[in-house]
Amino acid sequence: MVQLSTLFLLVLALIVLVVFFTIIPVGLWISAIAAQVRVGLFTLVGMRFRRVPPAKIVLPLIKAVKAGLGLDLDIGKLEAHYLAGGNVDRVVDALIAAQRAGIDLNFSRAAAIDLAGRDVKEAVMVSVTPKVIETPIVAAMAKDGIQVKATARVTVRANIERLVGGAGEETIIARVGEGIVSTIGSAASHKNVLENPDSISKTVLSKGLDAGTAFEILSIDIADVDVGKNIGAELQTDQAEADKKIAQAKAEERRAMAVAREQEMKASVEEMRAKVVEAEAEVPRAMAQALREGKLGVMDYYNLQNVLADTSMRENIAKTTKE
User: Fold this and answer.
1) Taking Cα atoms as reference points, which of 175, 174, 182, 201 lies closest to residue 141?
2) 119: phi > 0 → left, psi -120 to 50 → alpha, else beta; which?
3) Beta bridge mates, 138
4) Are residues 64 and 148 in the same domain?
């Protein structure tokens, strides 16, 4: 019976120890003390209740203290940043890198950059080591109608002061592309662009394209310049083809109007012929009326018939002669 009680007490003590070390990270607390970082056990327990992993706060703090950043950091700031959705370890690494590079960056600004969705560590690295952004192929047409294609390499350095609220790489690429298009478009000939490609980079660089962005443009280098299509000739060809189609349409319209007019004239001729036939049909009636009224004698009628017969004979003779 005594042995069972002893075994029960041992099991209970083991359970209590497991729960104790689970709730209170004693090993992490000992590591912090060894690194001369003041962290209370109740503070670590409070992190557990606030659902904050103590290791994600204490280990970066230890790293910061060893790097000489302990004066600007404390448990409260790191925990608040974690609860706000930030990456504590990345912020601490960025602060260490900025200190080594001599860049003025405090925890508040680094935390704001991290919460803004930017990689603050990468921003510090780009500030130390400039980054090269290559633009896609930009096509523009010179004044002589020849298309010129160019690509540029933009060397930028992150501007820590403008990382929060500043535009990103897409804006830099868009502005550089716009500058290339305007520079090529203002060239009198594509040959001038091919002979002096550096004129593009000089003109674009002088426009101050990094205003309002999170970067500082150090240089713009034209990587490749190529001749594209003869846009001017193609436009003239298309215009000529369009003019040709317009002229054909107008000619077809005039032809249709002429055909319609011809049909109208034929109809008018037939109408006149009908009127003539109608008038000729009135002649016998008029002659009969004249005979009844005594205005025309029988001999006059016969003489008229002889004249008509003689006229018909002459017409037949004339037709035979012509044939």
Assistant:
1) 182
2) beta
3) 150
4) no
